[in-house]
């Protein structure tokens, strides 16, 4: 690789992710000519503007890339990436920062989640996530409940309808919206399920709040309206 990129103009792309163990893994790619290559993956105990800038400098030194040949620093729109570029730019004056347009659009889309009129819905979604995330027994009760619900109605049984919730993950784009779409398909079942769950376990604050909400017909109506609004408009 050192020979391949010798004296070539290079753009560097850097992004953080997590592995299956929950460790912070930072990937660095070089783009040169018509090629893009993964050149380094490093696990960092602390990910911030300083550690990112230091990692970039170490990588450039390892591959013997002259600062004069580095043209673009490409990253997402995270604040620490912007600050990392500010650290690097005095060292590499010609360096330009390209921020991922897809990530910026995703951030714009996620402003819905923080819109004050959706706070009621956001709290319910967060509690549903909490109630499932660390409770395998509740997941089993949900699938059993949903199976019984379908069997007791005139809806033809469809095993594809018996699904666990696609819980939102902060680092997975659109996962919150996909979760709301799923909720939209199961509102009557969820209301009844959480009222029953409170009887089984009233020690969970999330369960108590959900049961209280779903016992109130006015709150359920507001919940349904907000969910349907997002389910319809977020797909447009």
In short:
With 236 residues, the chain is of the alpha/beta class. The protein folds into two domains: 10-99, Ribonuclease H-like superfamily/Ribonuclease H (Nucleotidyltransferase, domain 5), CATH 3.30.420; 110-233. The protein has nine helices and five strands.
Largest sheet: 5 strands, mixed
Structural class category: alpha/beta
Query: What Rg is obtained from the alpha carbons, in whole angstroms?
Result: 24 Å
Which outline best applies? elongated
Would you report the number of β strands?
5
Output the number of helix runs: 9
Q: Calculate the mean pLDDT score and round it.
A: 88
Helices, strands, pairings?
Elements: E1 10-18, E2 24-32, E3 35-43, H1 49-62, E4 70-75, H2 79-88, E5 96-99, H3 101-114, H4 119-133, H5 136-151, H6 175-184, H7 187-200, H8 205-214, H9 217-233
Parallel strand pairs: 1-4, 4-5
Antiparallel strand pairs: 1-2, 2-3
Helix pairs in contact: 1-2, 4-8, 6-9, 7-8
Record keyword descriptors for this entry.
236 residues; alpha/beta; Nucleotidyltransferase, domain 5; 2 domains; 5-stranded mixed beta sheet; 9 helices; elongated
Structural commentary:
By secondary structure, the chain is an alpha/beta fold. It contains nine helices and five strands; from the N terminus they run βββαβαβααααααα. Strands 3-2-1-4-5 form a five-stranded mixed β-sheet.
């Amino acid at each position: 690789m050192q020979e391949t990129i010798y004296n070539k103009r290079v753009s560097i792309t850097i992004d953080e992710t997590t592995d299956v163990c929950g460790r912070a893994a930072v990937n660095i790619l070089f783009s040169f000519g018509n090629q893009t290559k993964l050149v380094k993956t490093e696990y960092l105990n602390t990910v911030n503007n300083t550690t990112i800038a230091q990692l970039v400098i170490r990588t450039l030194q390892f591959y013997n890339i002259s600062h004069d040949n580095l043209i673009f620093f490409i990253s997402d729109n995270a604040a620490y990436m912007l600050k990392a570029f500010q650290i690097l730019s005095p060292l590499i004056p010609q360096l330009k920062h390209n921020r991922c347009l897809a990530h910026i659009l995703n951030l714009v889309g996620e402003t819905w989640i923080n819109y004050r009129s959706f706070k009621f819905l956001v709290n319910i979604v967060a509690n549903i996530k909490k109630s499932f995330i660390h409770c395998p027994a509740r997941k089993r009760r949900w699938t059993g409940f949903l199976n019984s619900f379908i069997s007791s109605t005139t809806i033809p049984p469809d095993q594809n309808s018996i699904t666990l919730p696609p819980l939102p993950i902060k680092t997975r784009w659109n996962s919150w919206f996909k979760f709301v779409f799923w909720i939209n398909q199961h509102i009557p079942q969820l209301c009844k399920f959480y009222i029953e769950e409170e009887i089984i376990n009233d020690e969970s604050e999330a369960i108590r709040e959900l049961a209280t909400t779903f016992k109130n017909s006015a709150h359920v109506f507001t919940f349904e309206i907000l969910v349907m609004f997002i389910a319809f408009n977020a797909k447009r």
